[in-house]
Amino acid sequence: MTVVSDELNCIKNLLQVMCANGAIHAKEKTFLVRAANTLGVQIDDWKGLLKEVLGDDVPLYPMANHDKAVATLKGLITMSRGDGAVVPKEKKFVLQFAKSIGIQKSQWKQILSDIDPDQLFEPFTRAQGRLLVVTDDFEKLDAFIATAGNNGAETEAVDLQTVINKCGPTESIVCFHAAEDKDVSVTRCQMLLDTCGDKLVCILTRFQGHQVKYLLEIGLKKCIIEPVYARDINELFSTF
After folding, report:
1. What is the C-alpha to C-alpha distance for residues 165 and 168, in angstroms, rounded to an integer?
2. Residue 121: what are its φ and ψ, rounded to 5°?
3. Could you tell me the residue range of the domain that residue 164 belongs to?
4. Quick one: CA dihedral 188, 190, 145, 165, positive or negative?
5. What does the pLDDT look like over 11-38, one tens digit per residue?
6. Does this model's pTM top 0.70?
7. Buried b (16+ CB within 10 A) or exposed e, 159-179
8. Is residue 217, in this structure, part of any structural domain at all?
9. End position of a domain, from candidates 81, 97, 123
């Protein structure tokens, strides 16, 4: 439970609703455990997590991915109905969460009609797409792959020469890291553009930010400054 993710925050929000009426119904417990299993959240100490949530000052836990946020909202609605009665505190939390993710009044009817118990958390389980990650100069490779994986991306890590040798036009988004030397980064970028096409992304440290303009000048469409967050991964799949 050390990684803060949409999955864990979803469970924390569900816990808030479960405890809102001062009593925990057996159906709510069952729903919560099923949600955690579906989302792949390993909870070793439910009592400890509950104590943490009840002791937090935050009114709700934010979500980075909008589709997952909407799925969480549907989960909150389902949880609030679990004991057969929606109390004012439950309704208030659900409405506050909906407002925080930009849900308008005009969308409520559609959201309520779209609630399918069997597909409730589908946005958490579907793969967004595939990333081909070039390992050269990628010091924070493990962190990048973990962030991508936590947000529904399949990843394959290979070295630059292997990518160049096997690449043609690809369905995968190709991510490479800038080198310390600007000219090396530009050459690397050009080689990948020539062999893999334009679904190419450069990851840079904040100290390499000055390289961005040179990369964009030769045709690169996307750069990300580390650290890489969930919203960055989500944006990649909406961009390409």
Report:
1. 9
2. -110, 30
3. 127-239
4. negative
5. 999 999 998 877 788 888 899 999 998 8
6. no
7. ebeebbeebeebebbbbbbbb
8. yes
9. 123
